[in-house]
Specification:
With 446 residues, the protein is an alpha/beta fold. 30% of the residues lie in helices and 19% in strands. It is built from 14 helices and 15 strands. α7 links the parallel β9 and β10. The relative contact order is 0.07.
Amino acid sequence: MIVEEVVPEGIAAQLGVEPGDRLKSINDESVRDILDYRFLTCAEKISVLLKKESGEEWLLNIEKDYEEDLGICFKQEGLGRIKRCQNNCIFCFLAQMPKGMRKTLYFNDDDYRLSFLHGNFITLTNLRKRDLERIVKLRLTPLYISVHTTNAALRNKMLNNPRSGKIMEQLAFLAQGGIMMQTQAVVCPGINDGLELQKTIKALYNLWPAVYSLAVVPVGLTRYREGLFPLQGFTREEARDVLVLVEESQKWCLKQGGYPFVFAGDEFYLAAGHEFPGALRYGGFPQTENGVGLARIFMDEWAKTSKKLPEELPDQVRATIITGVAGQKLLIPVIDRLNRVKKLKVNLRVIENRFFGERVTVAGLLTPDDVYGILKDMELGDVVVIPSVMLKKDEPVFLDGSRVGDLAGKLKANVAVADGPRGIVEAILSGKKRNYEKRISCLSRL
């Protein structure tokens, strides 16, 4: 591991550690990555072996507080080479990606370290016994695991990987080692739904609470599927069947252990035309990043936010709010209520996904061109409010790498990014003053 940066006045800086130094071992144990580094530097007394760029080796004997950081940052986040996915899943979204997106979107990782550090879902298919043992030793919990099915033969088929059938054995090992796991099943009609899904739910629940939750999400299909495994999206009736199974399973799990355990993605409720469950049925919302419960969080936050709206604005304000097809149901009552505020006029523009195809309905997969194609000839008012899910989590860039200011320039309009109901209201009420790339911050995300 090569030192990239040393925190000024930190322990490492005081001992003469410099960028370019190579960390060789801690307490005579080799350091493979940032996880080993964190694990081995927790002690109060440590011995660090460094190799300077000159070739000279330094042995640093350090006394510090327990878990006190040395103040070192490493190149490539201290991870080195990232494990790539070795599967060829029949539903893989990356296989349906056209050219022209951010380069990082085409890298399909399957690295247990990223699962622990960033919540990335992994399949466990590229792990050996020593990897599983390391996960337990270093207490890498929680992990996020794509299961899809617990039927070994079916999982081999769905992932196109003969090593994928060991999933229950692997999960049991991690559970016994004290690792908590959040799991998901990408459900494909006629393949791993129905009876197969029911078996998967029960098999995973047998490992509860180590396997803490299961998110059931529908397969995502773009228009770029030529030559790929033939898959269809869920019809309304098929989506309803999934919800019935999930809701019956929740009741069974609640009776068994007092926790609902299995949760359906928001897209299933929209596809089926069903109302979203109350907050209690989401068990603390363990899988919002998987699109589970975001609608309920939005609705509950809007119920509180709407009560604080003013009766009238001091000046006339006009705004445009955009969403994907799936978000229309949630935003119609929001627009209706906002338009009851005097001197405020808000229009909702539902953007169909022309880039990925009409079967992709979530706002998070809209591109700037999708938005511009609809809004370019419209009167947009003082501000255009876009949902934060259109942007990269840690950087204000769209799927194609462009920025909010680029879209604002093309539209010749003020564009604000909102994270939820409060963010929407703040963006609208201060729309005339907001800069193009000013991100609205609030407690919850849209």
